[in-house]
Amino acid sequence: MADRRPLLELVNPETLMPPRGFAHACLANGSRTLHLAGQVAADASGEIQHRNDLVQQFDLTLQNLKTCMDAVGARMDQVVKLNYYVLDVQDYLAKRKELGAVYRKYFDRHFPAMTLVEVKGLYNDGALIEIDGVAALD
To answer: What is the pLDDT averaged over residues 100-126?
Structure first.
């Protein structure tokens, strides 16, 4: 008889904005790999915070990723891959030092594989950065 368990376990922490057609994170059936959907600097109502402040948006975006990790009892040092999507790479590079301090607040000296991509636009109006990733859970 075929296994009837759902293919995905959806992770949608109540403190994040309500998912609209997506899950904040997913665990594949039988897997200990957590796939983190793109997070932005949105509050629980879905409103983008800190417009025009990349560093503050980066902080809230990482906090939202951490909320997803916390929801499954995972640690930030279990993240194995991050993808950053930014509207302006030059702005990102100009603020490397401040962004690095924020990064260390969440990851300390843990450096997973990372990709930085400049994009023309993001789904959420006012977002300057979006981050998704993958975590390997214990």
So the answer is: 97
